[in-house]
Amino acid sequence: MGCGCVAGVETVTHTAVDGAYAPTADYAHAIEVHGAQRLLFVSGTMGLDPAGVPGASLEEQLELLWNNLRAILAAADMTVDNIVRLTSYLRDAAYAEANAKARTEALGGRVIPTTAIVAQTLTPEWLVEVEVVAAG
Questions:
Q1: Would 55 be classed as within a structural domain?
Q2: Residue 78: which of 6, 13, 27, 128 has the closest Cα?
């Protein structure tokens, strides 16, 4: 268990020590949020440029995806520091490592509850989609 302050909101990270497997270093079992005045639920966001064209590679899509998330959060007067939950939808399990690396870098090493699911995306060119919950 650890405490922190995320963009003016107190968070407490919980890790089950008995009866559950240990999380890896890049995510948390759970985060408890105190003092949030707002919750923002962000729909699935892809690695598309402003014209709606997907990046040519997984790395380019991950960069565009995080740029898009930053813009969406900014529209709500939030930043990636407000993210308290994240779900990734990967077109291929082979994308998991690159996705985790991009997430870890975007969050500055801050760990949050995450889930990665391998799924068929609506368009084959969409390699990854991410949805988040932010608190502020």
A1: yes
A2: 6
Residue pLDDT, tens place only, 15-44: 888 889 989 888 999 989 998 999 999 999
Provide the pLDDT for residue 6.
61
Q: What percentage of the chain has pLDDT greater than the value 90?
A: 77
Q: Is residue 112 a part of any domain in this protein?
A: yes
Place of tokens 């500055």: 108
Structural domain range at position 79: 36-135
Token pair of 106, please? 């975007």
Question: For residue 45, is pLDDT > 90?
Answer: yes
* Distant-in-sequence, close-in-space partners of 18: CB < 8 Å, separation ≥ 6: none
Structure tokens at 118: 């391998």
Which residues are bridge partners to 83 per DSSP?
134
Radius of gyration of the chain (CA): 15
Residue 26 lies inside a defined structural domain of this protein = no
Cα–Cα distance between 12 and 5 in angstroms, integer? Answer: 9
> Is 57 within 8 Å of 63 (Cβ atoms)?
no
